[in-house]
Amino acid sequence: MERVTLGDRVHRQLRELLMAGKLMPGEKLSLRSVAASLGVSMMPVREAVAQLVAEDALTVLPNRAISVPVMTKRRFRELRAIRVMLEGYAAEQAAQQRGEADLAQIREADAQFRRAVSGAAPDPVSALRWNMNLHFAVYRAAQSPSLLTIIEGLWLKVGPVINLDLRASAERLSAGASERLHARLLAAIEAGDGAGARAALVEDINGSAAFIEATGNLPD
C-alpha cells in the first residue's frame, strides 16, 4: 500500500480547491491561514505549496508571498485549445469504454448539478462542485489514467478561471446552457455515441470560455 504523508494530503486538498475554483486568480495565500484551516502545522503546507509552485498552479511573488496566478487572454486561449482536444477525446473514449458504475456516477453528478441550478435561487457553490464532479466522472470513464492525470493538470491551472462562468452569474446558471449540454453529453455516453459526446463536451468548454472572455476580466 502506498504511504500517504500529511504533505501529500495537504497537496491534494489544495489541488481540489484550485480545480474547483474555490481560489480566485490573483488571490494571495497565507501559509499560516492555510495551516489553520486544514488543522496542520506549517511544514506540510510549505511542502504542498512548493509542489504546486513547481506544477505552475501557484506563483511566488517578489515579496515571497504566494498567490494564484493571474490568467492572461493568450494563455487562457492556449489552454482552452488544449482542453478541447484532450477533454473532447476523453468524452469520446468515455462513450466507448464506460461501464455501468461509470454511468451511475455521471448520472448522479448530472442530477446533483441540475438540483443546484434549478429554482429561483441557484446555488453556485454546489453547482461548482457538481460541475467538476460530472466532468471528472466522464474523464474517469475513459479508462485512461495517463489522460486523466494530464486533464487534472489542466484544471489545476484553469480551474480558478473557468469556474468564474458558474460563479459570477446566477442568471447564467438559471439560463440552463450547462444543463442542456450536460444532458446531451450524458445521452451520448449512454448511447455509446463518441462523436456526440465529444461535440457536447467541446461546446460546453467553448461556451464557458466565450462567456469568461466577454466579461473582460482577463488581462492581455
TrEMBL record:
Transmembrane segments: none annotated. InterPro entries: GntR_C, TF_FadR/GntR_C, Tscrpt_reg_HTH_GntR, WH-like_DNA-bd_sf, WH_DNA-bd_sf. Residues 4-71 form the HTH gntR-type domain. The keyword Transcription applies. Pfam families: FCD, GntR. The keyword Transcription applies. Signal peptide: none annotated. Keywords: DNA-binding, Transcription, Transcription regulation. One of its GO terms (molecular function) is DNA-binding transcription factor activity. PANTHER family: HTH-TYPE TRANSCRIPTIONAL REGULATOR MCBR, TRANSCRIPTIONAL REGULATOR, GNTR FAMILY. This is GntR family transcriptional regulator. It comes from Aliidongia dinghuensis.
